[in-house]
Design a protein that fits this description.
The protein is mostly beta strands and about 230 residues long. The protein is about 10% helix and about 50% strand. The protein contains 2 helices and 17 strands. Strands 2, 3, 4, 6 and 7 form a 5-stranded antiparallel sheet that branches. Strands 5-1-8-9 form a 4-stranded mixed sheet.
Amino acid sequence: MTTKTSRVWAIGALVTLVTGLTACLKSSDVTPQEPSSYFYVANASSALTAIDFFDNDVKQTSSNGFSFLANTIYQTSTGVHTFKVKKLGGDSTMATATNVYDSLELTSLFIYDLPTYATGIREISENFTNLSSTKINVRFFNLSVDAPAVDVYLDNIKIDSTHSYEGNGNNFYPAFDQITASTTSTIKLTKAGSDSTIAQINATLAAGRTYTIYLGGRKAFTDSRKLNVAYITH
């Protein structure tokens, strides 16, 4: 099946170093490598400046927690996993999600603000088929409850228009668009239909690579949880 083959190729890119090191060992010393599941985890919840992230009740974050708008690649064993988000250093569970994961899947977990301003976890089983090797593969998620609809620019190329908050129901659209550009240096979000900049960051996005851009934060905040944009490199 094409989808599975593509996922195996993508996962292989993540474990090339491990495989290379194992190949240097004598066959009698090699312990069979257990299958792993891989996750892209992004924190767009504006409830706190940092959170704790748990997998099957084992804390995976340092004492500094998982900062707002940060993202990371997380590797774990296959099987049933319950992910929990808790207040930094506390016992109060803010969000939870449980599923069965195998070694043929790459999954994205987005921690984000629900319409009620509570915290939720949205899971996307990634499909990296039909991506371009000559264009920038990119998608955008508006995860800010109170941000206006936005236009999204890579440098001066508009890649999305009037994109509203998508935390209602199943509005996450997982497909990637292909943008004709060799590299970009800026991601800019403006209020839809205007030149008013909502958020902007420097970012080098390259042709042949795949990215998720996401907006988080709240209009009223002036600390690190103010409206801002970040991106995942897949």
